[in-house]
Amino acid sequence: MAASGGSTTSNTNIPEYEYSDVNTKPFHIGGFRSEWLSRLTPDDYSYQPEEEDTFDANFAKEHGVSAETMAELKSVCSIDSLRCHPEDEQPDPEVVPPNPTLQTLIERKKKQDYKASRKITKNRHDLYANELERLTYGMKPEAVDDILPEGEVILTVNVYYPASYDKFNYVRPHMTLLMTGSHSLAEFRDAICCVSDLQVCGEFSNTPNIAPDFISKDHYKSAFFYFEGVFYNDMRYPECQDISMTTIEWAKSHNFPSYSQAKMEDTRFMDLNVKVGFPYLYCHQGDCEHLVIITDVRLTHKNDCLDKELYPLLTHKHRVATQKCSVCHIFIGRWFTTNDEFAPSHPCLFCDKCFRTLHYNEDGYKLGDFLAYPYVDRGAFN
Amino acid sequence: MIRSKRGETDPYRKQLKSDCESLLGRFQKTESVRFQVFSEIWRESNFTHIFYGAVKHEKRAFSRRVLDLAYSYFLPPLTFQIRVGGLYLLYSLYRSQTASPPEQIRVALKDWDEVKKFEKDAADAQHLDAVYILRQLRFLKAFHFTAMPTLLAYKKKRKTEKSDLSEEFVERASRPQELINGDLLEELSNIHELYEKMKTSVSLPSEKSVNMIHRSFVPQLRGSVLDFHKWQQNKDETDQDEDCGEGTSSQQECSNRAGLIASIKSKAYGEAAEASKSRRHRQVEVDPTSNESGPSNAPGRSRKTKPSFKARTKEKYLFSGDQLKASSSTTMISHLTSLDPVAAEKVKYFKRFPSK
C-alpha cells in the first residue's frame, strides 16, 4: 500500500486527471513516452504483425495448455462466434436492419428517417470529412527513411480561431493537427494557418500588382506559445522580437508568479511539460491570439499515417462561410474598395478578376477615383 | 469533435449505454466468465448489428464512441465478472466494427497496471479465455497507448452528471473487512492482554491508569465492522435470508475471546480475506436465491430524477375547478397589465420608489 502510494507520487509522468474528464495534471511528454515503453514489449507498438503461430505457441507454453485445448480456445474465441446472421447470407452493413431491438439502432433509424424527410440530401462537409480521412489513415511512406520510428509519440493538437468574431453557437471553430514528439514548436507554428498572417495592410489602388508582396507574415515574424508558465518565442529570424517580455514584466510588477522564456525553435514537443486538455496560448501578429489545446498524446500505431513527411498532419478543419465577389457572386472576395464610383455599395467586395476588369483599362491604368484594399477572407483556408 | 449544431456532443450515448448495460446485465446473471456464454448472449441480442446503418465517416466516430464506452466497463471499481464482460465486449466490438482500418481501443497509461493485474488475476484463476482474448487484442494491435482514455478539449460540463457507472456492477467496498480481519483482531487482543498485564505488574492495583484502557475495544471494533458488513448486505440484497446470519452473529457475543475470533474468521469476512479477487464474484453471494433477486432487482432501484418544477408546484398546491383552469392556461401578454387593484398599486409604488 505504502509502496504503491509512494511510487505514484514520485512518478509524475503518468498523467492523472486534475479535473475529471476535463484536463490532466502537468506531465513531461518525453517522460510519459518512456513510461509507456518501459511497460510494453516492442511487439506491442511494432508496425510489423506478429506471426500467429508463434503467438499461439507462446501462449500455450506460458499457460501450460495442450494443443487440443488451444485449438478449442481458438475456435471458441473466433469471430465466427460473434456472427449474428446465418453463414450463407451477408446483411448490408450500410442499412439499419429491420425490426431492431437495440436502443441505439432504434434511435439511429429515427434519425435517418428524420433526415430523409428533409429536403437536404447531401452535406458538403460530410464529403470533406470523408476525404480528409482517406488522405490520412494508414498512409505508408515511399522511402524507408521517411517512416515514423516505432514508439514515437503522436500529439493531437486543437488550434482554435480567435474568438473576436461570430457569436458563440456551441461550435468552437478550430483546426486539428497531428504532431510527432520530435517536432519543434517552430514547425508547429508554421503549420498553423491563420488569415491574419496573410493580411496586407495599406491602400493599393495605384499598384494592385505588388500588393501580394506585403503579407503580414513576412513583416511581423514574432510569435510565441505559452505552455505551463513558459513563453516559447520564435527567434529564428533577426527581426524577431521577444514579444512576451511585456507580459512577463507586467506580471512581475503585479506580483504574479514569475514566467520564464525559451526559444520555440529549440523546443521539441518531447521536452514540454504540459497538461492534456488544458487551454494554452499561441499569439502572433502582435494580438492574434489562438487557444491551443493538446487533446491527446499517444504512441504511434501501425494504422497511423506513417510518412514522416506528411506531418504536421491536418485532420480537422472548421469551414467558415466565405464572402463572395459582389459582381460575379462566384469567387471569394479579394479586394474591397471605398469611395468607389463603380461600386453598388460602400465598401464593396470584388474578386481579383472582376476588380481588375472593372477598375482598370487593358493597359492596367486606373480608371476613376477609388481606394482599394486587399482583402483576405477568413475562409481562405477552407 | 463531430457535433451537431444543437450542441449534442454524443448523440447515441444514452442508448449505447443502455444497450451495453443490458448485455452486461444478462452476462452478470449467468454468473459465468466464459466467452462462450458471452458470445451466446451477443448473438441472441444481435449485437453486431449495432454498427449497421452508420455510413461513411459516421462509422469511425461511432466505433470510437462505443469502444470508449466499453472500455469503462473493463476497469475497476467494477466486479471482476463485469470486467471480464467488458473485455469480451471490447473484443467483440473491435472485431465486428465496420470502420476500416479499425478504430483502436484507447488504453490510458494510468490504467495499464490495472490491465496487467487483471491479466494476472485471470491467469491465476485459470480463466484462459479471458487471458487469451486480452492477448489476442494485443496481438492484433488493437490498442492505442494513450495518456488519457478520451480526447480532452477542456469541455467543462454545465451540470455535473451523476456517476456513469451503474451501481450493480460496482464491486462492494471490502476495505474495512480487509483491514480489520481476524489476524489483526487476534494481534490486537494479544497486545491488549500483554499491555494490561504489564501495566498491572508495574503499577499498584488501585491505580486508575489501568482503567483507562478500553476493555471492550476489540469486540467493539469487531462489532462495528460486522455492522458495516451487515448493512452492506442488507443494502444489496432485499432478501430476509440474511436474518438468520444476523441472529447467529449476535448470539455469539459471549465472553470467550477465542471463540469470538474463530467466529469472525469463519463467518463474517472469511470470503473477503481469503478469496482471491478474481473469484470473489462467485463467493460473496452465498445464497443462490438471494442472488437471483439481488442484482436483477437492482435496476429498478436506480436513482429517480426529480420531477419538473411545474409538476412539483402542481402537486404541492392542489388547485380546484376554475383555479386549476386559470393556472394551467398560459399567461397572456395582455393579462399582464390587468392586475387586481391591490397588486397594481403595489407595483406602482415600487416603480416610483427608485426614481425618488
TrEMBL record, chain A:
Predominant cellular place of this UniProt entry's protein: nucleus
GO CC, any one term: nucleus
Subcellular location: Nucleus
InterPro entries attached to this UniProt entry: snRNA-activating_su3
One of the Pfam families matching this protein, by short name: SNAPC3
GO BP annotation list: snRNA transcription by RNA polymerase II; snRNA transcription by RNA polymerase III
Family, similarity comment: Belongs to the SNAPC3/SRD2 family.
Quaternary assembly: Part of the SNAPc complex composed of 5 subunits: SNAPC1, SNAPC2, SNAPC3, SNAPC4 and SNAPC5. SNAPC3 interacts with SNAPC1.
PANTHER family hit by this protein: SNRNA-ACTIVATING PROTEIN COMPLEX SUBUNIT 3
Official protein name in the record: snRNA-activating protein complex subunit 3
Organism this protein belongs to: Pleuronectes platessa (European plaice)
Automatic annotation (TrEMBL), chain B:
Biased amino acid composition, Basic residues: 301-311
Source domain of life: Eukaryota
Region (Disordered): 234-255, 271-314
Family matches, as InterPro entries: SNAPC1 (IPR019188)
GO molecular function: sequence-specific DNA binding
GO BP: snRNA transcription by RNA polymerase II; snRNA transcription by RNA polymerase III
Pfam families on file: SNAPC1 (PF09808)
Gene Ontology cellular-component annotations: snRNA-activating protein complex
PANTHER family given in the database record: SMALL NUCLEAR RNA ACTIVATING COMPLEX, POLYPEPTIDE 1, SNRNA-ACTIVATING PROTEIN COMPLEX SUBUNIT 1
Name the record gives this protein: Small nuclear RNA activating complex, polypeptide 1b
Biological source species: Pleuronectes platessa (European plaice)
